[in-house]
Amino acid sequence: MKKALFLIASCMVCTSIMAQGTLADYQRAYGIRSAYAGKTTNIVNSNVQLSDDQSQLIYSVQTKTGNNYYAIDLKKNTKAPLFDSSKLAAALSQQSEHQVTARNLTLTSLKPATLDAGNKGITFDAYGYHWTYDTTLDQLTRGEQMQQDAGGMRGRGGQGGQQRRWSEVDDQRGRTARFGGGPLQVYGKDNNLYLRNTDTQEETALTTDGNEQFYYSSWGSFSSDGKYYATVKIKPGIKRYVTYVNSSPTDQLQPKYYNIEYAKPGDSLDYKVPVVINLETRQATVADDALFHSQFDLSTPRWDRDKHTLTFTFNERGHKNYRILEMNAETGKVRAIIDEHDDKYVAWTRMDRRDVLDGKQIIWFSERDGYGHLYLYDRATGKVVNQITKGQFYVRRIVDIDEDRQLIYFTANGEGLPKTNPKEDPYNQHLCRVQFNGKGFIDLTPDEGNHSARFLGEGKQYIIDTYSTVEVPPTTVLRDGKTGKVLQTLGQTDISDLRASNWQGQEVFVAKGRDGKTDIWGIIQRPSNFDPSKKYPVIEYIYSGPGDQYVPKTFSTVGSLAELAELGFIVVQMDGMSTSWRSKEFEQVCYKNLKDAGFEDRKLWIKAAAQKYPYMDLDRVGIYGCSAGGQEALAALLFHGDFYKAAYSACGCHDNRMDKIWWNEQWMGYPIDESYIASSNTENIANLKGKLMLVVGELDDNVDPSSTFQVVNQLIKHNKDFEFIYLPGERHTMGGTYGTHKMYDFFVKNFLGVEPPAWSLLERR
To answer: pTM value?
Structure first.
């Protein structure tokens, strides 16, 4: 009998030790951010400043004992404390009547200054005043009181209050355009354009043929001599509106109803044609539309420097052609300067054009060779002078252009960059430089990591560079702006206190994709009480699609996956094929095939991780996501239900015909065809396997909520078991506090087999 009792007690102890999804787990999950707050030190603050004579650089570092302030003598390349923090704190305490210590010393708007007799010093703001501190003589001087307004404190050169901006719903026909600072105004009225002289109040009709079916837009511009006005004439498409019901408004009992304009794939769109109006003769020159027939969008033309031509962009419906077009203001003749074409789609949101050398040449971004690169065009001929960048990498952003030295500064990522570590994560961004002719390429930030860099000083003499990885905390360095050589290390973030507190950082994991050769990069998050002897369900966070890449690349104390992991899960995230910034081939897997979402790569990645880490239980794999991720989470159960066993799907665009036009026609094509049906969750709901929780905000103005309602309808028709959360008053959301708690309970019940703790026992911290 005693032996039996001992066995029962032993089993109870084992159950307790192995328990997951308990009240303690929830409490630890909800408190994880506060638990690790303040456990990273030696963090370089963003207030790095260069003196006007470029001889000194000052900055501060957060330490356990407060902010430490440093100065770098740039001529000698030496570093020393900027001042004695205890002395400045004592002086500030005396003059400000606040209790200031070296530990709580915080100076805003910190700048280096050269004072009387050439002494070194600083200026800063604190406790409502401007201050000057002579660091040579240790003398503090209180200056003027900081100004205040309705927006709060306002420092030197600042502006308080709210900035006025155009309402997003302003009627473009009601806008007024003014020539320079003079009295001439062009404005729209009754579908036509009018010219007003504000000195004489004389009003003249510039056009008379505008009507509701083909009207003049007043969004436009004057030529530099004020003789012409360029705009577009618009033939409006038939508008689609989505109706919303605000069931529970905060200011009244009864619900509110309203509509928003919301174009969907296949809808008719506005047709635009550029027009130039001679303000003296009232003659209108209309552009020849041969090169811009089937429009997704056409930009308002802008004047070139020669006053006789204008340029505008044409984005073809279906996005296979994207053109920079030039219009002759006198004849209306149009020619293509740049004609970008792709058999699947041109990623038009990435197109970047920079006019250089007095407009004679154009720097242009293109993916025509399979990667994202810069090309130099001759404006007059429309021909490529040379490809500026080349290789297996992507130009991400043009940072600056030095026309005098014909240099381009840009960020880039990819396997083909000349890095210090060839095996570095290809998504890490670096700051680079190259000449217009493609020569002299240099990675100015070659150290391994994802870099955030900015220039300081005239002629880009210095670079402040902060870089990290998911696993390695940030380092901030001062670099030479010409060579990228590290001159000084400003600080390296210390995470020793984190490591001493059961903290589990994210692990970078790499596995081969469906082709057996391409690396798929992702991260693994374990709970802080991780025990490798246990078996853990695996839950994937998904947001895929070709708009970007989505796995974090910089260090974070508590990543977005950590809270869910604390409940007893291994949580993972990866960028499979159909996402961006690897190659055009890698991304265009998505074309007419958004249901793919890289699932073949994702499953192989998770299987490879489980082979290395046997505590990852492949019989319990779940997935969650919002928006496109909501579509993909449900698609996992519909098209890969043999692998994924449960999904939390929030605000999903479950049928691409129901969602916004620009996203879906970009990747699914135009005109609408059977590929939309093949990728539709709604049309394929009969394939559902596993457990499903659907979430939608009733006021979601990003994805039409009816997309989710139609899934619910089909689930009911097919007699499928599921859970559904309708969130009154919520817009596009993962679920908010309530929905997230429901998601946690959903996975705990279905994967851990326990009843979650009562909500009344839990409180977020």
So the answer is: 0.91
